[in-house]
Amino acid sequence: MSRLYPDAPRVGVSVLCHRNGRVLLIKRGKDPYKDHWSLPGGLVELGETLLEAAERELREETGVKARLGAPAETFDSIQRDADGSVRAHFILTVFCGAYRSGPPEPGDDAVALEWIEPDRLDDRLTTPGTPDRIRRLMAR
């Protein structure tokens, strides 16, 4: 199942895990958006619910567990190359929740992680829309 130049959109999840007013972000280790800061997340596996995928991806990428509620937002992430061909297309559902347990450590696709205050997001290279999405969801 190719993530780059796919034959169909890929279904994924991301997690806004918060603690003491800060948000847990990972630095991506793979394309698309290698070296960009992002919410932890990844693709939904066959037979897995969106919530199960969100819990698994958060744990795999950060070692953390959170109290996740209902989906907070769903959006398209479409990246095109210079020729206009679709390089990547993800349909992502975002879950939000407070940190519950686990020592934060980068794992899986993450090369680094950090608890970041929402007002410091503009100083980072992030995946498209991430700072606005975090501020909007944290304001709820």
UniProtKB/TrEMBL annotation:
The signal sequence is none
Q: Which PROSITE patterns match?
A: NUDIX, NUDIX_BOX
The UniProt keywords, alphabetically, are: Hydrolase
The cofactor named in the record is: Mg(2+)
Pfam families registered for this protein in UniProt: NUDIX (PF00293)
| A GO MF term | hydrolase activity
InterPro entries of this UniProt entry? Nudix_hydrolase (IPR020476), NUDIX_hydrolase-like_dom_sf (IPR015797), NUDIX_hydrolase_CS (IPR020084), NUDIX_hydrolase_dom (IPR000086)
Q: Could you confirm whether the keyword Hydrolase appears in this record? A: yes
Indicate the segments forming the Nudix hydrolase domain, all copies: 8-139
Asked whether the keyword NADP is assigned, the reply is no
Indicate the family of this protein. Belongs to the Nudix hydrolase family.
Q: What is this protein called?
A: ADP-ribose pyrophosphatase YjhB (NUDIX family)
